[in-house]
Amino acid sequence: MHLGLIGYGTIAATLAELLAERGPRVDRITVLARTGREDAARDAVAGHAVEVVTEAPGLIAAGPDLVVECAGHAAVSAHVAPVLAAGLDVVLASVGALADAGLHDALLAAAQDGGARLILPAGAVGGTDLLAALAPAGGLEVSYTGTKPPAAWKGTPADTLLDLDALTEPAVVFEGNARSAAEQFPKNANVAATLALAGAGFEATKARLVADPAAPGNIHAYEVVSPVARYSMRIENVASGNARTSLATVYSLRREIANRAGPLAV
Ligand SMILES: NC(=O)C1=CN([C@@H]2O[C@H](COP(=O)(O)OP(=O)(O)OC[C@H]3O[C@@H](n4cnc5c(N)ncnc54)[C@H](OP(=O)(O)O)[C@@H]3O)[C@@H](O)[C@H]2O)C=CC1
Ligand SMILES: O=C([O-])CC(=O)C(=O)O
């Protein structure tokens, strides 16, 4: 497989290591990096045969079999539409970028034009297969709570709301719908967006974000009520090298790559 990566931070570097250790075999990686950050991109995936490009046309020309975005909302907005329009499938980690309705529609139109697929991985959450399966039955009620240690909320609006370093008990930093959560907390509410897109939509999906000094990791909990099934889920994630990012996200992206590599998709 020839893998395309947009992003060369914690997820990209951990994914590159995981692929080297556990497969599936990746023969070549092309990384789309910001100009001036080529060496950082090369270092992130060291151990693989790597080419670094700085614009979407370079990534398209390289012709990867699959592109994985793990760079953030701004990068989705800057690069993903042309990549899809060129016919390359994209696995999107920064799902919350789709809370921007204009970008959501533009990416779907680009995918349609290019005959490509925009793939939303489960990421740090689980059970999105069942949620997406239940959605056509209608009547879905989805309530999500994301709890992370104070360090994960640094540099977010929670920082101005609370003295994060002085927290001694859990504090709600956001309560509203999944669209507002994803817009206000772009690095902390991709899970809320994933649940919204799989299930009841951005407006109908309730989201609560909590800073908890006693949190053992990043906890994603949600409840689903539907006429077909009811379930609840609580996932206690180990953080990656980035306090905001759960390690399970990397494994979820690897799963998408393994499913593409075949012969069995699970
Ligand atoms: N779906 C899910 O469950 C999850 C999704 N995520 C998403 O994944 C993203 C990445 O996470 P993580 O690896 O931990 O974050 P990091 O901050 O460690 O890495 C982000 C990387 O993206 C690069 N980048 C930023 N902007 C651009 C751009 N315009 N073009 C190319 N590269 C760019 C950064 O480069 P530079 O160093 O030059 O700034 C950096 O290499 C998060 O922002 C979040 O949106 C994260 C966790 C879970
Ligand atoms: O939802 C997000 O943006 C990321 C997240 O919570 C996690 O990795 O646990």
From TrEMBL:
The record's family statement is: Belongs to the L-aspartate dehydrogenase family.
Query: What region holds the Aspartate/homoserine dehydrogenase NAD-binding domain?
Result: 7-121
For this protein, the record's HAMAP family field holds:
NadX (MF_01265)
Q: Which residues bind NAD(+)?
A: 124, 190
UniProt keywords (A-Z) are: NAD, NADP, Oxidoreductase, Pyridine nucleotide biosynthesis
UniProt-recorded name of the protein: L-aspartate dehydrogenase
Residue ranges occupied by any Aspartate dehydrogenase domain in the UniProt entry: 167-253
Coiled-coil stretches are: none
The active-site annotation reads 220
State which pathway it belongs to.
Cofactor biosynthesis; NAD(+) biosynthesis; iminoaspartate from L-aspartate (dehydrogenase route): step 1/1
Do the record's keywords include NADP? yes
Superkingdom of origin organism: Bacteria
Give the molecular function GO annotations. Answer: aspartate dehydrogenase [NAD(P)+] activity; NAD binding; NADP binding; oxidoreductase activity, acting on the CH-NH2 group of donors, NAD or NADP as acceptor
UniProt lists the gene as nadX
**The keyword Lipid metabolism is assigned to this record:** no
Instruction: List its EC numbers.
Output: 1.4.1.21
Pfam families, A to Z: Asp_DH_C, NAD_binding_3
GO terms, biological process: NAD+ biosynthetic process
Q: Explain the purpose of this protein.
A: Specifically catalyzes the NAD or NADP-dependent dehydrogenation of L-aspartate to iminoaspartate.
Reactions that this protein is recorded to catalyse: L-aspartate + NADP(+) + H2O = oxaloacetate + NH4(+) + NADPH + H(+); L-aspartate + NAD(+) + H2O = oxaloacetate + NH4(+) + NADH + H(+)
State the remark under miscellaneous.
Answer: The iminoaspartate product is unstable in aqueous solution and can decompose to oxaloacetate and ammonia.
Kindly give the InterPro entries that the UniProt entry links to this protein: Asp/hSer_DH_NAD-bd, Asp_DH, Asp_DH_prok, L-Asp_DH, NAD(P)-bd_dom_sf
| Name of the top EC class for this enzyme | oxidoreductase
